Fold this protein.
Amino acid sequence: MRRNSVRDRRSLTSSPDPRLITAVLAFAGMSASFMQTLVVPIQAKLPSLLDAERSETAWVITATLLGACIFTPVSGRLGDLYGKRRMAVASLIVLVIGSVICALAGDVWTLVAGRALQGAVLGIIPLGISILRDTLRRDRLPAGIAMVSATLGIGGALGLPLSALVAQTLDWHVLFWLSAGLGVLNIVLLLIVVPVSTLRSPGSFDVVGAIGLALGLSGVLIAVSRGNEVGWTSPGILGAGLGGVAVLGLWGWYELRQDSPLVDLRVAARPAVLYTNLASVAVGFAFFGAQITLPQLLELPAASGVGFGLSLIVASLVLAPAGLAMMGTSPLAARLTSRLGPRSVLVAGTALIAASYLLLLFLAGEVWQILAINALIGVGIGLAYAAMPTLIMHAVPASETAAANGLNTLMRTLGNTLSSAVTAAVLAQLTISVGAVSVPSSEGFRAAFVIGAAGAVVGVVLSLLIPRTSRPEAHPSLP
């Protein structure tokens, strides 16, 4: 055991170029984020492809969301306890298994099972941030954190044109062979480039807490994601939502009484952590609103008087610069964080998102305007997502680096889910008829833009509530 420990420490001190480590972890994060939009090009066709009801194929999206939300905090805690690189590789192995299941799927429920496993890979983003904290010098850390954190948005924006091209030119199963190949490539890169994680936390894994969190989140997320389709007042949705809230309440009571909890709620209740996580929900909400509305606006038939009639591939290419903007903003975000502090960067990024939505209310009549404004949203997301992990890591102990970042990633994903439900409900209510088909009206899109702006404004307010200086942590994750 001691010989292995010495070898692990030597591998840490003789690690490759930190830029290469950052690049590998960022590529892994983008691959994980890409999984969230992988089925977008075939989503409308799934009922005919799988000979299933639309209510059944909707679970292909819901299952991915559930997998991401349940496994992200769990993998973060396991990474703190047993090694972050080990858990990152394990997450990618689960992705490969899920991708192969999807690639071989001939029915809807096999595809749902595979997509649930694919969703588990999203936990690699907080694990990657934590690995950077363990391996990079302090002067290189802000840029690395900014890049890996922003991949939560970059992967989907840049991967959508690729998945659209594959779906429209090849058999849809190829999408999942592609994701399996990405998973294998990432495993190889991680094992070759990223050093072994030697910094471990004391304690044991909270199995009961993990089960409770999974059950509670599942109930709430099923209610939020399926409420529009099934009906918010249906017994199943009400039972899932209220039951999930009740389970989460019991889970919180249980966690506060554990010596080694899955999530340390006392740390999570600190003002710096609490308001950062709440702001993350609001920013995730504002970000995903654009991801729902703008593709529909670009793809709706021009005959409707609302849309531009673009194909999925062309619309994806119009929206892809937002991903490039997020990527390009990362170095700037790192410099601004070092000079102004992460709180100011989070406020600035969230305010830019709000301003971008207001521009959409008046300047969404040309494709180039949508491209430019969506890129501005990408800049705002790049700034905000870069600041969040830094704020969290300044306020939590070093023993909870991955778990705390996992919880923050979960908050962003919850914001995405809530935004998807609210935006879909608004667009479904405000429609016009084009032939025999109802499509969102211009009033519907404007209402969605107002709601997105409101979400960003809430994020600004919550960001301003983050203390400039918080109670000093004895052993902070970031000094």
